[in-house]
Structures are given as C-alpha cells and as structure tokens.
Design goal:
Length: 472
C-alpha cells in the first residue's frame, strides 16, 4: 500500500509544454489527433545526463466509447499510468500526466513529442509497436484457454464507466462468481506491476476450477473513465457495489463473492456491511484490520527497518511519521494541509532531517505529493474494524508472515472484529514465507518483489479455490 506503481516512475521529470494553438480539454468527439492513431507508441527519452528511458503512449477506446491514453515506462515495469487530462488542437495533442505534460504532433507516420523539464526541452519520437516490452513471468496465462472472456462496460456513480473482463468457465451451469478488488494505486484489472499480472493469473486458475471471475480497471485507469487523482474511499466502495449489483442482476451465478487484495478487503467489508444481501462471501488477501494511522505506522516501521534503521534512529523516524499523518488528518483542505506539512518539515532538527533523507522516509505516503491525495486522508482516518464487525457472510482471511506492507498484526484485527460482531464463519491463516504480493519470499521487503518470478504462491491459490468451491 505504501508505494504504488506511480511512485515507481516519478523520475522527477517536472514538465511543462507549449503548443502552437490554444488547446481545449478533450471531449469524446474532439480527439482527432488521437482517434486516428490508436495503438501503442514507443520512444526513447534521452535525459540531460545522457540516460535513456523507454517511454510509451497507449491510445485506446475506453469503456464509454471515448478515446483516451495512458503512459508506460517499460524500463520500470509500469504500464497504464493514468492521463489526467487531454487537450487537442488539430493534429496535436497534449497529455497531462500526474508528473509530466507531454505534447504529441503527428508527422507522416509517427508522433513527434516534446517534454519540457525545467528550462530544458526534451524531444522524443514515438513509433508504433504491437506491444510494449514486458518482462515475462512463468505464471502469466497463455492461450489456448478452456474458458471464455467477455468485455463489459459497467455504469458507476458520477457518470463513471468501468472497463471490465468477465471470465466464464465452460460447461458449468450457474457457477459461483468472484469479483477481484485491487489494492491501492492506479491499478488495472490485472493489478499489473513488475511484470506480474496477479489478477490475470488468479482469474485463470479459478476459471479452470469452474469459478467465474469479474475483474475491472480502477476508475480513471486504463479503460475505465473518471478521475483517479480525485477518488475517495467511498468512490471505490461505490464502484465495487455497482460491479456486485451487475453480477447479481445477471442471475447466472449461484453465489457472488468478493476477493480483495491489500486495500481491496476494506472495500469488500464496506459493501458487505452496508448491503448484507449483496455479498455472499469474502476472501481477504493481505487485508487491513487496523485503524488507518496505526496501519501506516506499522508499514512505515517495517519499511524503515528494511532501509537499515534501528534503535533511536527508528524511533525518531516513527515520531516524524506519526506527526505527518496526524497533520494530514487534521487538515481537510489540501492547500492548508501541504502548508502545514512544509512547516512540520522546516521545524525538524538538522539531525532528524538527515535521518528522513538517509532512510528514504520522504517518499510514498510521506511525500507532499501523496499528502494532496484525498484517498490517503480517507485511508488514514478510516477504521475498517467497524465494517468488519458488521460483516455476516463467510470470510477467508489470509495474510503473509513476510508481509511488510500490511504487517501480520492486521490479520488479528480482522478476525477479532468479525468475531466481536458475531460472525462464526471465519477461516484465517498466517502463511509462512508469503509476502504482501502473495509470493513465496525470503525477506518480504518491497525491493524483493521484482526479483521473484512467481506471481502467486500455489498455497494461496489452493486455499482460495477450496474456500470458494465450498460456498453453496
């Protein structure tokens, strides 16, 4: 939860761009520069220091029929990074990314692009490719498949349309269906990262066992419309509610369940608590069962230890982290919040400031960029135990003993809350050697994820399949 796909590609290209004509914000029928050239485009961006970064632009039709784009950084294993806004003028388009602004101009058979970084102009030409370079992982599903897949467009609150894939097992009448709910960050329906596509792997394994699977892009990501940067926890819960409602309305499934990863189980619990007849069962994978600030502090402590912090240094860092989070929660207005955090940073002693920088505690959720995110403030102010206490359906809760992002204490919080609420249909297990990404790991540290070829441990999949199959 602490570090997302977006932070992995924020390589400090603070970009401003210029175009000849005054651009206008794109509309579904006003993106001619993009509509005629849908597909994947790849180029080499040469930085002032000579380092070359492969950069990609994917131009596509979203679930509501509008044309949109996303950014990819194949060298960092990051894809489908949301574009916040598109402006179009003639044969030129301007893409506003969370960390950059990119101008594209059509020229014969390719796009000529420009980044403006501070005072430097960084040219980049984009040429068509069938696929972006990706690291191949052995568990990624490959055809032929013994199941069918349908592409769906799901209406959600706020005029948002979610792009989704429904995987249906063959020769099974009225199977159970599970909805997969991602963790934090701008996640696609496959929850892709570091070359891994865990939700694609899970959908494949479940479908082969006669279980239907619905997975969807988070709002504002990939084929889903909406503004990812401004989403709240309630928005994500409403999106899940819309997906679950559609699965029930199709009347082709015996039971409708939710499988959530990381932040996902919190959303599953929220929907099940408010609509007890909507969700028949829940699988929590690395789920959160502690108050938001407590959870983030445990996560930050594990991260600081991974960075080498010990003793008094560690306690100084944790005091700083607690002050940071309590300041975020106390200030609902983003501008005031950021100003207060800057003041907090200015008041640090030179010794503490040095510790923050030495142990890299000024990134992820402890950065000013993250502090502006309304979803982070929601998360910090949330106590998911309230929703878990109200969940009445069967629950399978699995956490990894080597999970550094959602430490094992969280599993006890989920189980205790369920039992306090009177739920007797709870199965829980702390799995040895399993990290937050559900891989078999040695250390559990975040920098280990990409070095592991396994996408999901077989032990995790086996427990999920057995539990879902028992739901009648």
């Amino acid at each position: 939860m602490r570090h997302t796909m977006l932070s992995a590609v924020m390589f400090l290209l603070v970009v401003t761009c210029r175009v000849a004509a005054a651009p206008v914000e794109s509309k579904p029928d006003d993106v001619a520069a993009l509509r005629a050239h849908q597909g994947r485009w790849l180029g080499d961006l040469t930085l002032p220091n000579g380092h070359v970064i492969k950069s990609g632009v994917d131009i596509f039709t979203r679930a509501d029929g509008s044309v949109w784009a996303s950014y990819a950084s194949p060298d960092r294993g990051a894809y489908d990074i949301p574009v916040k806004r598109i402006r179009s003028s003639g044969d030129s388009a301007e893409l506003e990314l969370p960390f950059a602004l990119l101008t594209l101009a059509w020229s014969d058979d390719h796009f000529r692009g420009q980044w403006h970084q501070n005072e430097s102009v960084l040219p980049i030409d984009f040429r068509p490719v069938a696929e972006f370079p990706r690291r191949q992982r052995p568990q990624t599903p490959t055809p032929p498949f013994p199941y069918t897949e349908q592409t769906l467009a799901i209406a959600a609150n706020g005029n948002v349309t979610l792009g989704a894939t429904l995987t249906l097992p063959q020769h099974v009448r009225h199977p159970n269906v599970v909805v997969l709910v991602h963790g934090s960050g701008p996640q696609t329906r496959d929850e892709e990262g570091d070359g891994h596509r865990p939700f694609a792997v899970l959908a494949d394994r479940l479908a082969r066992q006669g279980i239907a699977v619905l997975r969807y892009d988070k709002r504002g990501v990939a084929r889903s419309t909406g503004d990812y940067a401004q989403h709240t926890q309630q928005d994500l819960a409403d999106d899940l509610s819309a997906v679950v409602a559609l699965m029930r309305a199709r009347k082709q499934f015996r039971r409708v369940g939710v499988i959530g990863h990381s932040e996902g189980p919190m959303l599953a619990a929220a929907v099940a608590a408010r609509q007890p007849d909507a969700v028949d069962f829940i699988v929590s994978l690395g789920g959160v069962g502690l108050p938001g600030i407590d959870m983030m502090l445990l996560q930050d402590r594990a991260y600081a230890v991974d960075q080498g912090a010990r003793g008094a240094d560690l306690e100084h860092l944790m005091r700083f982290a607690r002050q940071w989070y309590t300041t975020i929660v106390a200030q609902p207005e983003p501008g005031v919040r950021v100003a207060a955090l800057k003041e907090l940073g200015a008041q640090l002693s030179s010794e503490d400031r040095g510790l923050v920088e030495k142990y890299k505690m000024n990134v992820g959720t402890l950065s000013l960029e993250a502090a502006e995110d309304p979803a982070l403030r929601d998360l910090l102010a949330t106590d998911p135990r309230k929703d878990w206490r109200a969940v009445r359906c069967p629950v399978l809760a699995l956490n990894g003993a080597l999970d550094h992002q959602v430490p094992p204490q969280s599993l006890a919080g989920i189980v205790a809350a369920l039992r306090e609420g009177g739920n007797a249909t709870v199965v829980s297990e702390l799995l040895p050697s399993i990290n937050h990404e559900l891989q078999t790991a040695k250390t559990g540290a975040e920098d280990e994820y990409a070095t592991i070829d396994e996408t999901i441990a077989a032990a995790v999949v086996q427990r999920i399949v057995a539990f879902v199959a028992r739901q009648r």
